[in-house]
Design goal:
By secondary structure, this protein is α/β, with parallel strands linked by helices. The chain has a single domain, classed as P-loop containing nucleotide triphosphate hydrolases (Rossmann fold). About 55% of the residues lie in helices and about 10% in strands. The chain has a 5-stranded parallel sheet with strand order 2-3-1-4-5, sandwiched between helices. Helix 1 packs parallel to helix 9.
């Protein structure tokens, strides 16, 4: 049997990262999220801070590179394209190494030819997401931004980045195997639903 791969796309503040981590724990497999950035930074020679900045701020690959980093990188590629390819290669390495859960970073598209892969998208109502980010230690909404404006900005950035590199529409149901409203189900039941779905379909 090929490695079991679960990719998770999620709205900001929906609990997708927590669900992904719980899934990995329940299945006894690896979990990749922020750790992927660190690994990519160490392997590529780019600073980890650069990956963090791209992860949070990228909106359009070429425009972003030109405005933030002063032009194209190696071989005429924009810097964000180089960073994307570095992460994509690592995602494939992780998937080849063993079963895992990967959150975000266009993993569903990057691993689209891998068998035994399940693509999940996690959403939640705005009220639930606001409560989640307000209780988050990151507190990314602080300053002059309201919680709702933070959610809208982060979702827009994720959508633009995903759409640019995949040619698909971020969050559109027919691009995923399963879409879950974690606000209605809660974390525990969302994890249970995904496990039942995967166990029912995997090879």
């Amino acid at each position: 049997m090929s490695n079991l791969i679960i990719t998770i796309g999620r709205q900001f503040g929906s609990g997708g990262r927590q669900i992904g981590r719980r899934l990995a724990e329940e299945l006894g497999i690896d979990f990749y999220d922020r750790a992927l950035i660190t690994a990519a930074a160490k392997k590529s020679g780019f600073s980890e801070e650069l990956f963090e900045m791209m992860d949070k701020r990228a909106t359009n690959s070429l425009l972003y590179s030109l405005s933030m980093f002063g032009g194209s990188g190696v071989n005429g590629m924009s810097l964000t394209d180089q960073l994307y390819l570095t992460q994509a290669n690592l995602i494939r390495e992780f998937a080849d190494k063993g079963s895992c859960v990967i959150v975000g970073r266009c993993a569903d598209h990057i691993l689209r030819e891998y068998p035994n892969r399940f693509d999940i998208f996690i959403s939640a109502p705005i009220e639930d997401r606001i409560r989640r980010i307000q209780s988050s230690p990151d507190r990314e909404f602080e300053g002059n931004k309201s919680p709702q404006s933070t959610l809208e900005k982060m979702d827009k950035q994720r959508a633009t980045y995903y759409n640019y590199y995949t040619g698909k529409v971020w969050g559109k149901a027919d691009h995923y195997d399963l879409c879950i409203n974690a606000g209605r189900l809660g974390i525990d039941k969302s994890v249970e639903l995904i496990l039942n779905f995967v166990n029912g379909l995997k090879e």
